[in-house]
Amino acid sequence: MKVYLTELFRNTSEKLEYLKGMTPILNVPNNPEHGDFSTNLAMLLTKQLKRNPREIAKEIIEALDVDPNVISKVEIAGPGFINFYFNPVFVTGIVNDIIKEKSNYGRSEKYKGKKAIVEFVSANPTGPLTVGHGRNAVFGDTVANMLEWIGYSVDREYYFNNAGRQMRVLGNSVRLRYMEILGEKIEFPEDHYQGDYIKDIAKKLVDDYGNALIDEPAEGKFKDTAEREIFKDIENTLSRIKINFKNYFNENSLYETGKISELLETFKEKDLSYEKDNATWLKLTELGNEQDKVIVKSTGEPTYRLPDIAYHRTKFERGYDLIVDIFGSDHNATYPDVLAGLKSLGYDVSKIKVLIHQFVTILDKGEVVKMSTRKANFITLDELIDEVGPDVVRYFFNMRSIASHLNFDLELAKTQSDENPVFYLQYAHARISSILKMTKENDLECSTDNLNLLTTLEEQNLLKKLYQFSGEMLYDSENFESHSIASYLEELAALFHRFYTQCRIIGTEKKLAEARIALCIAVQIVIKNGLTVLGLEAPERM
RNA sequence: GCACCCGUAGCUCAACUGGAUAGAGCGUUUGACUACGGAUCAAAAGGUUGAGGGUUCGAAUCCUUCCGGGUGUACCA
To answer: Measuring from the CA of residue A38 to each C1', which nucleotide is nearest?
Structure first.
């Protein structure tokens, strides 16, 4: 529908000089009395033309070459909106398209041939994933799905650091628990990892090696085993919510392959860095930033900026057209330095999209639960999945805009999991499966020969909603707004349930019944495609 | 102090990116099948969009000043 209108306006711009180069903004009005599509074009032109908007609207409408088989009515409303009403018979045509394309319906090839990388989760292996990581994980994976849906070839990447202080502390935490199990008296420092999973890893080491590791340093077997076990755990958790990474990128490899020293060298050559107080500084003030930042400390150790810049440099070197980073809001101060560094090297940083999501606040009985991996008072993502199931977890994190803080009430999640909107969507899908089974038993087939019989309000509303799917998916994907897909599907499901209570299939005239079956199938396909992008199951029965 | 995000119905959140009467779910109240799945549908109540000022045909949305919450603000990652 929208495509038709855009085309219509383009053709009209020949007649009206002032329409040249204008692409009208076409909206679906909130109020159905305002038509199926609406544009504010005339109002935007008032200033330029210094004329009454309604007068301009009138002139535009007269110039439009409208096909009555497509559009049944065009009118001027309010201060100067132009409203379009589509011909009900034309609207039914969407069912054909959907049934023809099935699981490909709504895809776009706009970005075909382009390569994208989405980096997300990227939690260091110091403990199990928490509910907080869940939002990052689910959102990142959904973004990747959306990009694939509009044509990108997408790599999912997990960046981690298994060196540094955190990991030494982790190794030592395991070592101490190991000694403890062997009967040594130990002091367990407060800043060490308190979680029970540390004890489990220590126990495994006792089982496998007995007391042979007593003289082993914390950073040897202890750290290595902890890292391996924790990663196994993380991968396992992620796969439960259908997340699988193509790459795990180890920060350490940047040192091993010489990327770090290479980068330092480049900064030096290009005169982008300097030495001061024994440290190496990056000249960011020259790029308009507030202050220069240290990239190598006086101790000779790099700060996080250097490997981060080197890492992102590899993304450019690997030839990605779109580079997406999913971070929690605690990173909001760090990435600008990294971008500035890359920009100074001449990379096109507009290819990088940094998506910052706000934190998840966990509420238990109305109280905010402060979580920390070290203190082990967190709720793991695994526990949450156990409690409510993978689909509810995925849906919950996709329901909200990432810009807003998310309150997660544990009690509510547990007790009301049956009321979660995800079931509403899945129920619509399952219900259609059931209807199709039942109609088959009544010797009714799907037929698209008489779609023009679909004229009731409920049918027309449903059809128009189906028309919006492709555009919705493209827009949401380009703008990384997975929550809008969720809203769209909820609205579609609601329109379907309404249709279903008003319009019977079995017992009505055969031609109409078979057209309605076609409509049901179309709705089912669209729901399934939407659920698939969100990473959810589309069940045949519940 | 400074930077970024947020403040919308009792609660959790939307709002087509500046559009027409600000919408959903939960909760509350009231209805609907001898029915293809009641995990459904229909209806009611619920709002000074944190507050003030500005920009314009038009503001929850943009600008500005406050108020409140979150996250940062290192030669930690």
So the answer is: B19
Please state the domain extents for chain A. Answer: 2-86, 92-110+418-534, 115-158+244-357, 165-240
Claim: this prediction has a pTM higher than 0.90: yes
Q: Are A127 and A230 in contact (CB under 8 A)?
A: yes
**Residue A142 CA distance to nucleotide B20 C1' (Å):** 34
Q: Going edge to edge, which strands form the sheet with A406-409?
A: A367-369, A360-364, A406-409
Nucleotide nearest to A424 (CA to C1'): B39
Nucleotides of B under 7 A from a protein CB: 3-7, 11-17, 19-27, 35-37, 39-42, 57-58, 69-77
Top CATH class, A2-86: alpha beta
Rounded distance in angstroms from the CA atom of residue A490 to the C1' atom of nucleotide B43: 20
Q: How far apart are CA A141 and CA A154, in angstroms?
A: 10
CATH architecture type of domain A92-110+418-534: Orthogonal Bundle (1.10)
CATH architecture of A115-158+244-357: 3-Layer(aba) Sandwich (3.40)
Looking up tokens 């409303």 gives: A77
Q: Which residue is nearest to nucleotide B35 (CA to C1')?
A: A504
Query: How far apart, in whole angstroms, are the C-alpha atoms of residue A273 and residue A284?
Result: 9
What pLDDT was estimated at residue A222? 95
Amino acid identity at A162:
N
| Cα separation, A62 vs A57, whole angstroms | 9
Rounded Cα–Cα distance for residues A481 and A143 (Å): 8
Looking at per-residue pLDDT, the higher value among A273 and A387 belongs to A273
Distance in angstroms, CA of A279 to C1' of B73? Answer: 21
Distances (CA, A) of A475 to A54, A375, A484: 30, 42, 9
- Report how far residue A106's alpha carbon sits from residue A467's, in angstroms, rounded to the nearest whole number: 10
Model confidence at A383: pLDDT above 90:
no
- Measure, in angstroms, how far nucleotide B50 C1' is from residue A395 CA: 30
pLDDT digits (tens, 9 = 90+) for A89-140: 999 999 999 999 999 999 999 999 999 999 999 999 999 998 889 999 999 9
Instruction: Give the pLDDT of residue A359.
Output: 84
Give tens-digit pLDDT for A248-296.
999 999 999 999 999 999 999 999 999 988 999 999 888 777 788 999 9
Spanning CA of A362 to C1' of B50, the rounded length in angstroms is: 24
